[in-house]
Amino acid sequence: MPLRIAFSVDYSGEIMVLGEKLWEGKGKSGGPGFIKSIDIEGVKSVYAWSAQLKGFGCAEGVDCMVQVTADGMQPPKGIGREKDQGVMMTMTGEMAVIKGHDLSKMSDSSGKPVGVGLWSFMTMSEKLSWMNDIIAVITMEALDPMWETSNITIYEWKT
């Protein structure tokens, strides 16, 4: 049965629903990346990460490896922002490209970083063509303060 999560988005009582879970897995940092600049707004950097993901729901059987490069800005305190681009390669050889935007912060409860993002996909694969029409919500939960490893979950955004 698909996992569905609902939450209120405004005071008029409207509900936005996340659709079924598409992928879940573990992410790994691609190393320290590099710092582009440091100024009063924070640290601007470029870094890479990858994840091995297992497909669920309409993505069942679409197990894949994701490789992402992100351009981010992390202020001394508050919410960081990142712009992603990446490649998703399935175990059967199909490919999709990823474009996305993320926000991240330190979790109040665990003291570890967490993030959420919106992703879109583009593919020429007939098997993955359904991905061209979705917006995905990605959640990331670091397992350590430096994002060396993380839990990744990707949901379809239903409107």
Properties at a glance:
mainly beta, Porin, 8-stranded antiparallel beta barrel, 10 strands, disordered N terminus
Protein described:
It contains no helices and 10 strands. With about 160 residues, the protein is mostly beta strands. It has an 8-stranded antiparallel β-barrel with strand order 2-4-5-6-7-8-9-10. Strand 5 and strand 6 form a beta hairpin. The N terminus is likely disordered.
Give the total of beta strands: 10
Alpha-beta classification: mainly beta
* Biggest sheet layout: 8 strands, antiparallel, barrel
Widest sheet: strand order? 2-4-5-6-7-8-9-10
Quaternary structure of the protein: single chain
Distance between the termini: 19 Å
Average pLDDT confidence is 89
Determine the strand fraction and express it as a percent band. over 45%
> What is the CATH T-level topology?
Porin
Gross morphology:
globular
Summarize the structure.
The protein has no helices and 10 strands.
Give the helix/strand layout:
Layout: E1 5-8, E2 15-29, E3 34-39, E4 42-55, E5 64-74, E6 80-90, E7 95-106, E8 113-122, E9 135-142, E10 149-158
Antiparallel strand pairs: 1-2, 2-4, 2-10, 3-4, 4-5, 5-6, 6-7, 7-8, 8-9, 9-10
